Amino acid sequence: MHRSRVYAVLIDTPESEAAKAADFWSAALGVTARPFPPAPEFTTLHQALPGLVMAVQAVDDAPRIHLDIETDDVEAETARLTALGAEQVSQWQECRVLRAPGGHLMCVLPVETDPETFKAQANVWS
């Protein structure tokens, strides 16, 4: 048994455009853009999606939007999603990058939220 939930919506933006994208999205959504010092490629869009993290991520790739799914068992959640038809395309630190049928990317990562929120909001899988 393991648990997982959608943790974040990321707006992947080419690195050269990331600052402008963060300014645009913060103004468009009426929220504050905040740099995330531990990981400078991320700029959070504070309170854009209550209950979820929303951020602009500077990437060396094409613009897109992807989901982050947090879990208490990265291996089990990756196996569950690949059994549903996703394909693992890479690994970044502890995160697994998957491509869903239809081509959309998602990341599976260890739990980031506080334990009480995760326990209350996560789906339980057997």
Give your account of this protein's structure.
This protein has 126 residues and is of the alpha+beta class. It has one domain (2-125): 2,3-Dihydroxybiphenyl 1,2-Dioxygenase, domain 1, CATH 3.10.180. 23% of the residues lie in helices and 45% in strands. The protein contains three helices and nine strands. The chain has helices at residues 18-29, 74-83, 115-121, and strands at residues 2-14, 32-35, 42-46, 53-59, 64-71, 87-92, 95-99, 105-110, 123-125. Strands 1, 2, 3, 4, 5, 6, 7, 8 and 9 form a nine-stranded mixed beta sheet that branches. A hairpin with a 6-residue loop joins strand 3 and strand 4. The longest helix has 12 residues, at 18-29. It is globular, with a radius of gyration of 15 Å. The protein starts with a strand and ends with a strand.
Question: How would you summarize this macromolecular structure in one to three sentences?
Answer:
The chain has 126 residues and is an alpha+beta fold. It has helices spanning 18-29, 74-83, 115-121, and strands at 2-14, 32-35, 42-46, 53-59, 64-71, 87-92, 95-99, 105-110, 123-125.
